[in-house]
TrEMBL record:
Organism name: Rhizobium herbae
Gene3D superfamilies per the UniProt record, alphabetical: endopeptidase domain like (from Nostoc punctiforme)
Database matches in InterPro entries: Papain-like_cys_pep_sf
The organism's place on the tree of life at top rank: Bacteria
Name of the protein in question: Lipo-like protein
């Protein structure tokens, strides 16, 4: 029996969990181009960073298609701020739960960096966070650990069984946010976006320009007004595209020198200069 189900669960709960299980099953043939090194990630990541993941679950294919992106999942790095059990505290750093993520069928959980050692990943870092705001974001995410999601809204999951639904590009983001059920929140990056929304940190705000008063140096001054989009519309790709999150590449953080690379010749032997 599924440990996430109890005798009080309804038929819809059971159907929802069955659908979630199928959607989170791994697909065959996935091979990362540059798999992550968990130890290097552990040295590079800072609390508040977002780790984007190129997933290989069945639901990942639909998310990649709908968002026109290679990134299908996002996790929040909280590092040592996550409370540990005595057993977890004795584990190597890469095996301790340091990432907070939301998974379909599980809810909000803490997982180790080693979980993504065989996946393509990308670090996106918010720039210029004050210590107070960083702590606020961390506290928000940690407080959501253990949050479960209602699996009754099965329509929110059924759409992901069509990896390439025939919808125009402009409607695909809306399709991700279709319905109002919790499974939508469990799949998208909405919890992370909601955390940054609390401190008014922009991800991809809508910008409109309004004419200001005429001044001595220009006929019109233009003011940018930032409108924070609702967190339910954000996807993993948005953190990559955001002009307010820096892309951090671990291989470049610790003195990369291309002259020290070992190249292989056509005969399969190392090239020696």
């Amino acid at each position: 029996m599924n440990p996430l189900l109890s005798s009080k669960d309804t038929l819809l709960d059971r159907i929802g969990m069955a659908l979630a299980g199928k959607l989170t099953a791994k697909t065959s043939g996935y091979e990362p181009y540059t798999p992550s090194d968990p130890e290097t990630l552990a040295r590079t990541l800072r609390p508040g960073d977002i780790l984007l993941i190129e997933g290989n679950h069945k639901v990942s294919a639909a998310i990649k298609y709908l968002t026109q992106s290679t990134w299908s999942h996002a996790a929040f790095f909280a590092g040592d701020e996550i409370p540990l059990t005595l057993d977890q505290a004795t584990l190597p750093v890469i095996d301790r739960p340091q990432l907070i993520e939301v998974n379909l069928g599980q809810g909000c959980v803490a997982v180790p960096l080693s979980k993504y050692s065989t996946y393509n990943t990308r670090i996106c870092r918010p720039v210029g966070l004050t210590p107070e705001d960083r702590n606020a974001v961390l506290s928000f995410m940690i407080s959501r650990l253990g949050l479960k999601y209602d699996m009754k809204n099965i329509l929110d999951m059924l759409r992901f069984f069509m990896p390439t639904p025939p919808v125009p590009v402009r409607w695909r983001r809306r399709m991700l946010a279709f319905g109002s059920g919790d499974p939508t929140r469990a799949i998208c990056s909405t919890l992370i976006a909601e955390a940054f929304e609390q401190i008014r940190y922009p991800i991809l705000p809508e910008i409109t320009r309004a004419p200001g008063r005429a001044s001595a140096t220009s006929q019109y001054s233009r003011a940018e007004i930032l409108h924070i989009r609702h967190h339910s519309l954000y996807t993993p790709r948005d953190f990559d595209l955001s002009p307010y999150f820096a892309v951090v590449k671990p291989t470049l953080e610790y003195g990369f020198d291309y002259k020290r690379l070992q190249w292989e010749g056509r005969d399969g032997k190392p090239l020696i200069e």
